[in-house]
Amino acid sequence: MRATLLTIALIFSLANVYAQGEEAKLKISHLTGDFYIYTTYNTYEGSRIPANGMYVITSSGVVLFDTPWDTTQFQPLLDSIKWRHHKSVIMCIATHWHSDRTEGLAFYQQQGISTYTTILTDELSKKNHKKRAEYLMAKDTIFNVGPYSFEVYYPGPGHTEDNIVVWFDKEKFYMVVV
């Protein structure tokens, strides 16, 4: 009897150790106020790599900046946002053409979410066979969503030749993706 109990205890403890070894595929962290950072992971050249994006909660809905690049996280991100904040994502802005920013654009469009990129990002996405947004910004653009106003602008080449920056004037901070 004692050996049986020890065996069962060992099995449960091993199962618990192995369960803790698997890292979460989606992490959401509060940044400040209505702003959150989300992190998803994918494998790139044999290594597990994180990709961060951001979202802001507004009275009109949630604005998502970039998409997960792990296709299994498109819906879980939407579900997590809905569960945490009782709001739906209404728009998504991709900050450059790489898959860790654009991979979910087609999926989010199918969910009725408005998706945006710049014309340059769209050209590079098309050239590199990446997902493309529904709406294109020809120049720097100011969005007003709920109480938030933010400017999406192109400061010139950086991490990629098309990367854009998001400036929240009232909050006095930039969102820069690298």
Explain this structure to me?
- This protein is of the alpha/beta class and 178 residues long.
- The chain has one domain: Metallo-beta-lactamase, Chain A (4-Layer Sandwich), CATH 3.60.15.
- Helix content is 29%, strand content 37%.
- It contains 5 helices and 11 strands, in the order αββββαβααβαβββββ.
- The strands form 2 sheets. Strands 1-2-3-4-5-6-7 form a 7-stranded mixed sheet.
- β10 and β11 form a beta hairpin.
- The protein is globular.
- It starts with a helix and ends with a strand.
- The N terminus is likely disordered.
Helices and strands in order, then pairings?
Blueprint: H1 2-21, E1 26-32, E2 35-44, E3 47-58, E4 61-65, H2 74-85, E5 89-93, H3 99-102, H4 105-110, E6 114-118, H5 119-127, E7 135-137, E8 141-145, E9 148-153, E10 165-168, E11 173-176
Q: What labels describe this entry?
A:
single chain; 178 residues; alpha/beta; Metallo-beta-lactamase, Chain A; 5 helices; 29% helix; disordered N terminus
